Amino acid sequence: MLILGIECTAHTFGCGVASSDGEILANVNSEYIPDKGGIHPREAARHHANVAPSILKSALSKAGVEIEAVNGIAISLGPGLGPCLRTGATVARALAAYFEKPLIPVNHCVAHIEIAKLICDAEDPLVVYVSGGNTIIAAYAGGRYRVFGETLDIALGNCLDVFARRAGLPHPGGPYIEKLAREGERFIPLPYVVKGQDVSFSGLLTAALKKLDEGERLEDLCYSLQEVAFSMVCEVAERAIAHTMKKELLLTGGVAANRRLQEMLKAVAEEHGATFGVVPHEYARDNGAMIAWTGVLAMKHGITIPLEESFIKPRWRLDAVDVPWVGESEVAAIEEGS
Ligand code: AMP
Ligand code: MG
Question: Ligand 1, atom 2: nearest CA belongs to which residue?
Fold first, then answer.
């Protein structure tokens, strides 16, 4: 079975092709980078509409398949920015209708987890997903991926990007902050906000910006911002792994590229006897392959959606999605054993 997957929830339009035996045949993505300021949803959607034909063609040609040969079109229906989701859904519906292929609804966050498991060869991990738009600590339990912690306001990547922009650094700012943080010499106390299992970055961002205006050294601020923000994520991840007793910890999303965050989460994993894995950037960023692969898993369970019901879901939560393909091997093992 071959599935074409389309990603379009925010800044990236991507097409991927995955096979039922877990081979990624193509992963072609185009990211919208604003000239200045943050992502404007309508501008991003315009970018997606412009690049869609060439990205699709390029993915199919990389995979060496004609669209007639694919068995379904998987589309990320949410969560994400309305105009971007609509553009992607329009492309997917048009392809599904014209080529008479089933349409497979995919949740973007589920897809981040599934591709992380595939690429890192993990079975049942605790996943730390930190990107420009999401901050979620999740693991499988009872038929769904459950959220063991998330941001109450802005995402970790967004916090870093906004701070970087105000400091005059290029977009996206995460990598620049990481570099400057290495030159940090003095820790500047900043608000550390963990509420129950959730984190909040907006107060931290405001305080860091205030310190910037007050003339604190940028390197020290980058260092302190990273230490505080990453410690918050680690605290929540640590309680989650202690509670769930998962034996694998996977780090994904754009912010996964950060060496300091990797180092801190690796220590958490080791402390709890879990292996630690970082998803390579190609599959940690938003990408078409993750939608294609999750499409394969869903299609195997007959999960498709009629075109007329394929509404976008800008606020579609990770823990609202049944994932019947997870835990199958355990069920099979139990049945075999009995
Ligand atoms: P995504 O939304 O998954 O495409 O990830 C983009 C986010 O990852 C942006 O907020 C970037 O600033 C952030 N990012 C990328 N590389 C790094 C890094 N080395 N350190 C921190 N954040 C990063
Ligand atoms: Mg994402």
Answer: 132
Domain of 78, in residue numbers? 2-113+283-336
- The C-alpha atoms of residue 292 and residue 252 are separated, in whole angstroms, by 17
pLDDT in tens, 147-181: 999 999 999 999 999 999 999 999 899 999 999 99
Ligand 1 atom closest to Cα of 10?
Answer: 2
Q: Whole-structure pTM over 0.85, yes or no?
A: yes
Helix axis angle for 156-166 and 218-244, nearest 10°, is 180
Give ∠ CA 221-226-228 in degrees, rounded to 5.
95
Record the tokens describing residue 101, joined without a space.
């292929």
Looking at the CA of residue 257, tell me the nearest atom of ligand 1. 19
17 is in an annotated binding site: no
Indicate whether 118 belongs to any domain: no
290-323 pLDDT, tens digit per residue, is: 999 999 999 999 999 999 999 999 999 999 999 9
Query: Does 174 count as an annotated binding residue?
Result: yes
Pocket test for ligand 1, best of 180, 255, 258, 262 (most atoms within 8 A of CB): 255
